[in-house]
Please model this.
Amino acid sequence: MTAPRPATVLITTKDRRDLLRNAIRSVLMQSVAVDILVVDDGSSDGTSDMVRQEFPEVTLVRNLQANGIIKARNVAAEMVSTPVLFTLDDDAEFGGETTVQRALAALDHPRVGVVTLPLIDHVDGTSRLRGDSKRANQDDFPVSRAFLGGANALKLDLFRMLGGYGGQGRQGEESGYALRLLDHGYVVRFADTEPVDHYPVRSTRNLREIAFFHAQNTVLYAWEYVPASRLPLQLAASTINTLKLGLTRKMLGAAIHGLLSGAALVVRGKTHRSPVGVPAYRLSRSLTAEGELPFSRVQQTLPQSIRPDTSHVSSASK
Model:
């Protein structure tokens, strides 16, 4: 009888057939056997045919129309039976054979809800490390404010209890989830693993769409999660910063469009407020300012007991 798998690796993809092939191969090379779930979110390049022909052991879900990566990940999470869900971008590869094994070890802590994996962006001949794994294996491990959406491992029962990711389409879902984790007594921890290799292809990235959803979800993050006493300042600061970023990246129009779209969703009641407590919000702000904090310091601010939450109905089917 085959032993149950400890984790599932989820790869959501669209029109990146050849990059996806490398991503799947890097998962199959892991020292720990895991399930693999590929969600083809409306590809037109033969992605699903490639997966069926070359990787019959992979579970494939094909969306005829793109749902966007946030909804696609929420829906996929409802299909998984393992206790842990890894998310790997389709243009990324696990950097070594023990990545899953070491990430699972880091996740084996009662107060850790998500493990974020270090990642190296390989762009135009340059390499940039995101997420330092140094000291990650210490007892007093560093805690992060957020995590990389395309290189992480999370506890699936907790993810479902909290209702999955918020936001619309793509961009920024990690920040809201990490904030809700803090409010319920859990943290995001760095992993002491080989860095994930990320190969973003500029020609397949819609930068204006990314800027639009980043701006839109900035508004939704503030409205949904920020305490009322902090909401005006959060909205003002995030709006100014989003416009500055849009101007710097020559995406000001997309940024303005995204901000207005986020406001429209709020006015039309397409999202709801479920703000976290002030202590969790303050802690998140401290983590933002410091970059990371030792767990011993964060633990002093966390709720003494882990509390359930049923206010966020799973958005997977919405």
Q: What stands out?
A: The longest strand covers residues 7-13.
